[in-house]
Prior knowledge:
The protein is mostly beta strands.
Amino acid sequence: VSTQSTGSSGINAEYGKQWYQRRVRGVFVNMLLLWCVALLLGQTLSLTDEEIAAFIPSDPDFVERNTGLRSQVWATDNGDGSVTVNTNGIPSHDTWQFPNNESGNPHSLEENWSSYKMFKDPIMRSEGDELMCIPNGAIGIATSGVYIYSWWAAEKGCPYARDFEELDICEGHPASNGEYHYHHYSPCVQMPTCGVESPLYGVALDGIPIYGPFADNGQQLTRIDLDKCGGRYDSNGRYKYHVTIDPPFFPSCFKGEIRKDVGKSEETFTCGCPYDDSGMPERGPKPEDGGRGPPDDGGRGPPDGDRRGPPDGGEGRPKPEIICDFSGDVNLPAVCVDKISVNATMSRKWIQLQEYQDLAPCCPSGADCGASCKTEEGIKDVCEVETAELGSGKTCPRTNLAGMPATTTASLSRSVTETEV
């Protein structure tokens, strides 16, 4: 991971100019190579019409209990090499009532419109040059219209969501701005058929599709089957991310380039969790401004203007350093450079233990499993569940690491291969 920093002048300095020129040359070379590979394999790298059409509410008549609203989500091929996904952030599936004192979530679930734009033909970054510092907030959108977050909660200590609080029946909860989101695999986005490739789960901000845990050969994938960003090439040579039942669940870095008009503020692109929590807030009260609403134009669509960003430091907290430059031609990739502070000291340490866990449930071919295999009482009897030994994320204070077996612990805050003693 690169730790180079260009100082307060940012990446507009001389180093940034030189780096940008090299990056642009590399981008076009990568595009040409990937296009040639796609032609040879007869496989497009683009989001297909079928994938674009998959962004619809699973139940358009479903009324969400917290807001009394229906889900609105759709994707559009803009005809200029870009695709836009629009959502009001309202899930078209069951949720809990929020705020929820029993789960520990003090926030309300509210309507939050967003419009994210990505390259229709993903522009792949060079091997070894993946963007490790993924942004705060949404890193993608599920076909259900729900925001996909990383598995790190953007709060002091970067807590693991399952250790931090209990999530609802669809493995989601709202953020402080009312934005409902997933931190890991939700059984309510799709109903996988056992032994059959999972349908599209969503898309990441770099335009690379996110598929469910079942590969094109019918095998259920776990993180060990994927690369460091959580993706793999399918049998046709097409690169896809996969959501898995084991951490980090969703893409943990970006293999593709981000558009400058992606729809998120530059301020959300920092090297925060899981690398540095110094600029992260403690959990506090819900902001008074609430959620964002749709425009008063009588039609569907997100409001214009900047997207939401993280807190700008705050009293006693340093303001995170921005790692991306969105200025200039919006049709070119943003210039993003990882700036991971080697001096950052996390208040908690992440470890990964091997534990036997249930894999994602699936519906046997020909069976009627409904919209989801999960109920409040557990997994439906008609669904099938395999068990495997998988990595399980745990968090503990740095002072309490003594006694943890060196053979079963690994640092997740810097590298999944760095052994922690």
